[in-house]
Each structure stands twice: as C-alpha cells, then as structure tokens.
Design brief:
The complex is a heterodimer of chains A (116) and B (114). Chain A is an all-beta fold and 116 residues long. Helix content of chain A is 0%, strand content 48%. By secondary structure, chain B is mainly beta. Chain B contains no helices and 11 strands. In chain B, the strands form 2 sheets. In chain B, strands 2, 4, 5, 9, 10 and 11 form a 6-stranded mixed sheet that branches. Chain B is globular, with a radius of gyration of 14 Å. Chain B starts with a strand and ends with a strand. The chains are: A mainly beta (116), B mainly beta (114). The interface between A and B is medium-sized, with 30 and 29 residues.
C-alpha cells in the first residue's frame, strides 16, 4: 500500500533561508492539497491542484510561498525567506476526483518545519 | 471566522464506554463531512464520512450522525478502546468551493482510560 509520502519529515532552518518540501500522492489520485497546521489548531488549507493545474490558493499563501505539481504527479512547496511564523506542520493530501458525490482526502505524515 | 467548531478541547472516557465527540458548523452549503484521527507527529488518518443527504453513517465501532437543521455532527465510538486515544478532527467541504478543500475544526483530544 503506497500512501501519501512527504519528505523531509523534519526541517530546521534559519530565518531568511529558503526551504522546499516534496509530496508524492497516491498514484491514481488527480487531486492534491497542501495544508498547514499549527499547535492547537486544525489543518488550514493552503492550495489545491487538479492534475498539474493549481486551481485555488488560500490568502494564507503569501508571495513567499510557491507550489508546483509538474506533470500532475509529485508536488513541491517552497517557502522563500522563511520567517519564524512559518514554523508549522505542512501536510499534503490527495484524492481522486470522480463523478460520484464526493472524494475522501488521504494525508501524508507531514513535514515539521522549525524556523530559528 | 471559524466555520467549523469543536467546542470541547478534550474528553476522557473509560475503556468500554461510549465516546461522543461533537462538531458544529456555520455554512449551510457544506455537503460532505469527515472525521479524522491524529496521533502526534503523524498526519491525520481518515475515519468516517457522511454526505449531507444522509443523517447517519456507521462503520464498525464508529458512527457519525448529522443534524442539518442544527448544523451539528457527532462521532460515536462504541466501545471505546485505549488505542482510540488521539486528537479527533471534524472537517467539512462544499459551500462556494468545488475544489473539495476541507475546513477543519480545532480538534478534540480523546483519552480512553483502561
């Protein structure tokens, strides 16, 4: 069973550095989501891809954040000029868009980012 | 604005008894609701879901109830087991967005005592 995988699992960086995270979704899933979770809160939506197209971005996603999903497979989330407020768990989820009612998102283990 | 709310930060129950976790939402356009379970340092794990055309869905020890008029859903776990101890999130999708993005509550920490 190849679920959603994320790398790295942990990242410690200094303020001002750039970081990049990778997500590999479940292979037949054409929908991919990024969420961010901070302590004591539920995950918050960041952005959504359908295949390779980025169709929605949250206003939480400042211009320092960029996400890609080349060829509709894996996705990367890059944060430029990191700030201490970026410290959080970054979660990736995938699902399969179908013609039936709704689809269920399956999450990866997350990448824990700590900005010093 | 918090469109999905879990007003109880924590819940403690005895093993073998029923656990009831509650969730309220404000957006009447939400049409799909899910419960996830999360252990520390792991991603959320899907538990059970319900669409707005139903009022109950059952899967083994887990049952989700939806009361659309009250904009309320609940997760019942019977019987509760120590391994159920985790943070539980309810989530909703639909509304003005057709992307399937999920709006999560803040979570409820369930502790099941042996």
């Amino acid at each position: 069973d190849t679920g959603v995988s994320q790398n790295p699992r942990h990242k410690i960086t200094k303020r001002g550095q750039n970081v990049t995270f990778r997500c590999d979704p479940i292979s037949e899933h054409n929908r991919l989501y990024w969420y961010r979770q901070t302590l004591g809160q539920g995950p918050e939506f960041l952005t959504y891809f359908q295949n390779e197209a980025q169709l929605e971005k949250s206003r939480l996603l400042s211009d320092r954040f960029s996400a890609e999903r080349p060829k509709g497979s894996f996705s990367t989330l890059e944060i430029q000029r990191t700030e201490q407020g970026d410290s959080a768990m970054y979660l990736c989820a995938s699902s399969r868009l179908t013609t039936t009612f709704t689809d269920t998102q399956y999450f990866g283990p997350g990448t824990r980012l700590t900005v010093l | 604005d918090q469109q999905v709310k879990q007003n109880s930060p924590s819940l403690s129950v005895q093993e073998g008894r029923i656990s009831i976790l509650n969730c309220d939402y404000t957006n009447s356009m939400f049409d799909y609701f899910l419960w996830y379970k999360k252990y520390p340092a792991e991603g959320p794990t899907f538990l059970i879901s319900i669409s707005s055309i139903k009022d109950k869905n059952e899967d083994g020890r887990f049952t989700v109830f939806l009361n659309k008029s009250a904009k309320h859903l609940s997760l019942h776990i019977v019987p509760s087991q120590p391994g159920d101890s985790a943070v539980y999130f309810c989530a909703a999708s639909g509304g003005s967005s057709n992307t399937g993005k999920l709006i999560f509550g803040q979570g409820t920490t369930l502790q099941v005592k042996p």
